[in-house]
């Protein structure tokens, strides 16, 4: 079985009329009114007590996407933003305008006017794509002379190379015990890191000219050289390291967070001049980047380094009288206990989190049990990864070392799948009877309008505004 995230945009929009605005009922017991034509006479009940529908206003689309004209079509006066609008009078309404379907606040239905930003959004999207021409020489690696593959950027000169090409260059420089210089400009390299931004550019270039694509053999070879998975500090001191140096002086170079192991032997290891370092994302302290040790040093989801597990594996719990970072911070996914739904779940909308919590309880299960189940499905590649917001999601599995933030992202992703595949009968009754919001999980209204968030289901795919 495989669960795939599909766009339902075209199918859904043919069955629902294209609305450009709506009247959102302030009282969730009454339905919203969709405004689908550029000029529409609204016909609905105006008194909560009656089901009699009659025409009471006409709404005409404005030219500027942010306002509209409202004309009173009722035999009564109506109230717009507190102003009395008599028969056939016209006023301008804006996003958020309050429209009361009769002459008084009490007893009549109250609506908020909302313009659906769909056309605007698709227009913006078009404007965001610029056609640019690129000199191919500017997207090529000066080592292999091909378009970058898994680009890395070195600093301070900011030249770019394939990860595999530069990894091999780095390895050879270290073998020879010489400082690492940029293969392009010969400047000393202090830092190298993956550049995900360039990946999109490369993708576009390869799409435009597929003859630039590399063969599978070449890619496999580059992958086998690749060693840069997190940001590496290649050189942080200016001069040769001397024994017993305190890093407070000249040698501290451009960082105030030197590596404790450059001056003190911990666990039988002392850094050499060529040792590459990582900087802990939490405490900013440096640690040597060690290969061949069985301890994670960085998170594969965000590619940031975390020092806790490393120092704890050496039995070091204090450095310079400061406690070291948490040893559990890179615990494998399947070894982590979970007792609460992460706050980022369901787009941070508390109500949907509560619904998920109640579902799980009602099914007689625990959160841990549900997550373990879904980690299994995830591990067997049964879930589409489109919505998983981690780097290289296809390389992540149940034994991956993730930081706390990336673990929360993974759990939220799994809980989305738990909910979206759950038969309606497992939902609590108040949640089960809700219709899906057209904007699904991407809906912005759910974040500022509690009524709306409760009234419609938002753990669903967007069918609009894509
Ligand atoms: Zn290259
Ligand atoms: Zn350079
Ligand atoms: Zn060191
Ligand atoms: Zn740390
Ligand atoms: Zn992470
Ligand atoms: Zn919504």
Largest sheet: 6 strands, antiparallel
Small-molecule components bound? zinc ion
> Globular, elongated, flat, extended or rod-shaped: what is the shape?
elongated
Strand order of the largest sheet: 2-1-10-9-6-7
Average predicted local confidence, pLDDT:
86
Rg over alpha carbons:
29 Å
Order of helices and strands: HEEEEEEEEEEHEEHEHHEEEHEEHHHHHH
Strand element count: 18
Helix content: 25-40%
Structural class call reads alpha+beta
Subcellular location: Nucleus
Protein name: RING-type domain-containing protein
GO molecular function, one term: ubiquitin-protein transferase activity
Keywords: Cell cycle, Metal-binding, Nucleus, Transferase, Ubl conjugation pathway, Zinc, Zinc-finger
């Amino acid at each position: 079985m495989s669960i795939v995230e599909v766009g339902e945009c075209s199918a859904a929009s043919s069955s629902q009329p294209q609305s450009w605005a709506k009247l959102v009922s302030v009282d969730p017991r009454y339905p919203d009114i969709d405004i689908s034509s550029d000029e529409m006479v609204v016909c609905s009940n105006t008194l909560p007590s009656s089901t009699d529908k009659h025409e009471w206003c006409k709404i005409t689309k404005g030219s500027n996407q942010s306002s509209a004209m409202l004309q009173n079509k009722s035999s009564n006066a109506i109230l717009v933003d507190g102003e009395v609008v008599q028969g056939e009078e016209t006023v301008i309404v804006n996003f958020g305008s309050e429209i009361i379907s009769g002459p008084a606040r009490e007893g009549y239905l109250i609506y908020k006017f909302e313009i659906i930003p769909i056309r605007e959004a698709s227009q913006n999207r078009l404007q965001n794509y610029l056609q640019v021409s690129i000199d191919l020489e500017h997207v090529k690696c000066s080592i292999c002379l091909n378009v970058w593959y898994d680009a890395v950027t070195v600093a301070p000169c900011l030249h770019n190379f394939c990860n595999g090409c530069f990894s091999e260059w780095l390895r050879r420089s270290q073998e020879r015990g010489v400082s690492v210089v940029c293969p392009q400009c010969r400047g000393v390299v202090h830092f190298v890191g993956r550049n995900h931004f360039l990946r999109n550019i490369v993708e576009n270039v390869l799409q435009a000219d597929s003859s630039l694509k590399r063969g599978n053999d070449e890619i496999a070879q580059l992958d086998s050289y690749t060693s840069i998975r997190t940001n590496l500090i290649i050189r942080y001191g200016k001069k040769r390291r001397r024994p017993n140096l305190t890093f407070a002086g000249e040698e501290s170079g451009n960082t105030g967070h030197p590596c404790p192991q450059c001056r003190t032997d911990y666990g039988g290891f002392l850094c050499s001049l060529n040792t590459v370092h990582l900087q802990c994302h939490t405490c900013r302290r440096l640690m040597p980047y060690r290969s061949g040790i069985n301890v994670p040093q960085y998170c594969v989801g965000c590619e940031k380094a975390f020092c806790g597990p490393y120092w704890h594996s050496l039995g070091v719990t204090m450095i310079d009288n400061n406690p070291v970072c948490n040893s559990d911070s890179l615990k494998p996914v399947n070894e982590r206990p979970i007792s609460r739904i992460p706050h980022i779940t369901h787009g941070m909308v508390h109500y949907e989190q509560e619904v998920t919590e109640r579902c799980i309880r009602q099914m007689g299960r625990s959160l841990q049990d549900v997550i373990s189940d879904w980690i299994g499905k995830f591990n067997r590649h049964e879930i589409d990864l489109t919505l998983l917001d981690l780097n290289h999601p296809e390389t992540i599995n149940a034994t991956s070392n993730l930081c706390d933030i990336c673990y929360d992202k993974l759990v939220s992703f799994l809980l989305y799948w738990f909910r979206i595949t759950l038969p309606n009968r497992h939902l609590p009754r108040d949640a089960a009877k809700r219709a899906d919001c057209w904007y699904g999980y991407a809906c912005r209204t759910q974040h500022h309008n509690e009524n709306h968030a409760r009234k419609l289901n938002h753990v669903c795919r967007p069918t609009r505004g894509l």
